[in-house]
Specification:
The protein is an alpha/beta fold. The chain has ten helices and seven strands.
Amino acid sequence: MCMFLWTTHIGPEHADLLSDIRRTGFDGVEIPVFEGSPADFAAIGRMLDDLGLDRTAVAAIGDPAQNLIAPDQATRTAGIDHMKWVLECTQALGADRVSGPLHSTLGHFSGAGPTEAEIGHSIDCQRKIGAIAADHGVTICLEALNRFECYLLNTMDALAQHVRTIDHPNIRAMYDTFHANIEEADPIGALIRNSDVVQHIHISENDRGVPGRGNIPWAGTFEAIKQTGYDEWLTIEAFGRGLPDLAAATKVWRDFAESPEAVYRDGHAHIRACLAAAGC
């Protein structure tokens, strides 16, 4: 379960919530890496160990001054430095991967599509970041976002080709059902034909609410998961209005469920039912 539904800063005050997530049947949680030090994330890791929860990490680049595809080297270098901090925190957390749109600044647009120069900057930066990730024992799972949130990588085909060109074992791809529902003419096919680079999956309903209550083609999605042999994390990502900055970034102006508990309890039951139906 991704903790974005509640916070971008996990602390001891979330222990009861995390315990209930564990009791519901989740194997782990996805921890936001937005602020703090490696020591802070090491403490979070110890708390999760005590609760019997494994973990992954999720992050984003929100500052245009750290844009990894910027025309000037100083900005790109600042972005690489930011990613080094993300990787240090992820390692301290005890997570083996961090996912998100870690290729460009979230919500920052040029007014045009990606240029060859921007794509080239991304390849160069990701190879450098991949080397840092390898030193920290962490894999980065890059995410394609819909056209309203970024412009560099919107589809799985574009993302997968980019990852293949980068050609670094610590730079992989993530498939997100919400973004695929917007951008892909064939969301299931997009997962199947790019499964060679997919190392993380976000389970997210078309309205960002409770998985199973919307129009995502869940049966086909889970059939594709079985067909491709994917056996990594299935992480529920949902959003609410509780975090103003995150709500603004994701354009969430209303609640999509009667309670957060409904999201993770009904969402967990939905995933288990879909896995069973697909014979996974």
